[in-house]
Predict the 3D structure of the following.
Amino acid sequence: MNYFLRRILQLIGTLFVVSLITFAAFYIIPGDPARVILGPEATEAQVEALREELGLNRSMLQTFSDWLTGTLRGDLGESLIFRQPVTDLVAQKIPVTLTIAAMSIFMTIIAAFPLGIAAARKPGKFADQLISVIGHFFLAFPPIVLALVITLLLGLTFKLFIAGEYVSYTDSISGFIASLFFPSIAVAIPKIAVFQKFIRTSIIAERSKDYVRTAKSHGLSNMMVMIRHILPNSLVPIITVLSIVASEILGGVLVVEMVFNIPGISRLLIFGIENRDYPLTAGIVLYLAVMTVIVYFVADILHSLVDPRIRLK
Amino acid sequence: MQRIIRFRNHSIFLILGGVFVGIVLFCALISIIYLPDDPMATNSMTKLAAPSADHLFGCDHEGRDVLSRVILGSRPTVIISLLGILIALLLGMLLGSAAGYFGGAPDHFLMLISDSIMAFPGILLALVFVAVIGKGLPGLIFGLGIVFAPSYARIFRTGIRQLKDREYILLARLIGVKPPRILFVHLFPGLVPQLAPAIVVGIANMAMAEAGLSYLGQGVQIPQPSLGNMLMEGQSYLVYAPWIIIFPSIYLLFYVLGMYFLSEGVRMKFKTGGV
Amino acid sequence: MAYEPTPLLSIRNLSLSFSDPVTRKENSILSRLSFDIRDGEVFGIVGESGSGKTILSLAIAGLLPETAKITAGEIIFRGQNLLSLSPKARRDLLGREIGMIFQEPLSSLNPLISVGKHLEEVITAHPDASTPKETRGMRKTRILEMLAHVGFHDPGRIYRAFPHQLSGGQRQRALIAGALLLKPSLLIADEPTTALDTVTQTQILDQLRRISQSFSLSVLFISHDLKIMEKMCDRLAVLHNRRIVECDATYEVLHSPGHPHTAALLRGARLDIRGAEVARPAPPAGAVPLYRIEALSAGYTTTAFRGATNEAQVLDQVSLRILPGEILGLIGSSGCGKTTLARVMTGLLPGSTGRIYENEELVADFSLKKRIRKSPVGLVFQDPYNSLNPYKTVGWLLEEPLRVNHLHPQKDRRERVLTMMAQVGLPKRYIDSYPHQLSGGQRQRVALAISLMLSPSLIIADEPVSSLDVTVQSQILQLLHDINRRSGVAFLLITHDLRVIRAICDRVAVMDSGKIVETGRIGDVIHSPKMPVTKLLTEQI
């Protein structure tokens, strides 16, 4: 399992670079959290005292190394503004964001595969044309606009859901899922369009490979050739793209949460950025980066399950 | 594969995309010399006024003319997406070519950086970068440029790695062609079929990212109109005055959809081009 | 009239065409083909690339691409017209009655599943071809038997192996096992050994021949190579210009060809270039060599995990002299270091030790890591599809050497290009063509012309004809020969094919595992080879 070890090291390296970038970013950003907390009325001396207390006068490298050692122990520090542990703040909000993301990824997968396979069956024929035209339209639908259209059309006009209503998962799990359904759709639709198109292309590319001809010459039916040969082989690039799509979905959720007024991580993130709350922002960024890294890692595992060339290297 | 080409003629995509993008570009250009009304002038008489002969697209919650604001608001979208892609392309070309051509340690280092950037949801990184460089136009252009650069770096790197050991490149080295000329004259034409559609799609994605940032209040700052912050401002009036958000939405959609159509057309054109 | 049994397969007036997806024009590919394959015989179809051999085999199997259409004729297999069968019935014949093997063993197996799974599919796809309630274990026994039959000594390992763990020859054997597993009566073999090296080629062909006899199997054997045909086939048909121009017993076809195209193929196969030309006299012993390579070694260093380096020695103390104006052949099997030698000489790769002299003047000393100057050596590669930039026109490509070296005023360059095109036999009208608009032979002419633009004293040609059709091969070799005689440029001709060496070389050097094992005048080496490697090579002819 040398391969996995190498990949894990690589992904940890990625996380390190990611945190360093966010940290460096905060040291360049103009603005002073101490001034934000105390407001414009406070005297220069008061601000200076708070800066000292919050540790804002230390060098970036020192702050970073402190933060890093804390992080390695599972302690992301304390938010400058809220004066609460970052982990607690994030833990309140992240389940919502991750649920929307997970639902969107799920929707993308279950919708894109049938569409992509249907389109690839007879390229250029009616079904393919139809899927392609609709796909192109939604491919280019900006998520905000789509979210607004869904609110306006499905929420306000057809009353399928109450715009702006959110049920916390502590109150009702089913109500929670239901209230996140339309936001998830808004994130998923453009990704379904991207993903189904990619599935179609990979299947068509695999179909002209030599081994398909061999399988046919062995007398396998078209169905068997598709299930046993073409689909598994096209899965290799599809998994890679799925991991990229999943990371994009996470980004899409950040915007769509705001449109649907859902108390997820993105409002906390914007708040952290605007108020120069660097432990909070860095913590959130790290959380989200870890999530994407996990997605990439799962993709790697799936790859090795599908492809013996990776497994038996 | 051959069959598709007949049905999905690339020129349809190019024409349709050209018209969509053309409308938005025309508005952005015309806004320099003419606006139907003052986009900044608030007017308590026309608050939330519905579209009429006086105000074709209606008025917003401050009584400002939506048509004028949309026309002016499309300007940052166009400027940021075009200049931002230029930055992304230049950065990507520089880093990707170096990594691809020389390989070894610089390649590993550059790919680690680009993998790290790509591991992020783009909007997250854009938020951080824009916060660093500043929320104005330059901040958005450079911030988004950096976020988009890795994907172009990757195209350059992979393309060059694939092509540089081709025999025709070896032959070019042999007849005395110097490395810069090999890159620019002998290698780059081979990348165009992949690069051209990616650039056009990049413009669309960057316009979407800009709208997203402005919507989140981290991009173009109010009262300066942009398609994104108009959506943010208008959202509260969705029920009573949907025109405040409908028209900027349509503009954004035109631009993004138009670019996607253009890229599809460009991609098909290269595919059928024979090479 | 002797007794004629019903043929196993009988093609009657078969015509086939491709419809162009854009213009919807019908392009005829095969026209009114008729031939029979008898029980137990090996029937060969020979033709150059693009003659429609492969499409014919796919038509028989029923695996034509959508754009191809059979416009007339019948394919009768065991008295039944295949074209009137349902797709399902035709599919059922595949694998059971008709087995197939293809040219590219490397890509013809699904990389994700093991050899055993591949073969098991053949059985499970034909439920009525196996005894009812056949267990997995019984199927495995059958498969292992077949794997042993096609020459695997350790069928168990091969059964479990994934394609990427096997060599090209092993994969082709596995494919043969799959094609023969259900004991079909017809095997279609489409250039089955073209992608393999000579030794493996011989083994696979012998195996095929043996199996066809022991299974009383009929084989439709498709190839471009007359030498293989002579060894393999009982009867032979020549496909040319969409038609079968000749069909008879192999011996008859090869020894008294009845059609000019067959004669041309045979001439091509012999590569008879010199004709009656007398061998050039040996140069005086003390002549100054154009190039002298002294104890040249070279290898690749690969950096492994944690900075450890592995060095693979590719060239081992190679010494070689190239005389002015001669054509020196360099022969050896694939992987012996020929190509590396070419790349070190041209400066594309560094050597690790050794020296190179040009006209007895030191130009490179690799022990000191020093290349004093690069000499203008021309290089022609094997694959003319990869050696020309697809995005540039012929004229641009030919002008580039002059442009980058600032030779000749700009206005004269086009004139120079046209002169050069005339010299290599390319009509003027191709000056604005892109490489993909040219044939393989034409591209190779362009590649040669690019090398000649800088008037080098030596051109290294690395397998310049091995990817070309035989009739084109002899044209290109003729061109090399003519250019050598006309302009006095020396050639180092690298090849694995002794026929090419014999056709135009003055001297030959034999290379084996990175060493030069024998050099000499061409006649001496061919007629009295000293080293065992050389003997093996000379037996090819």
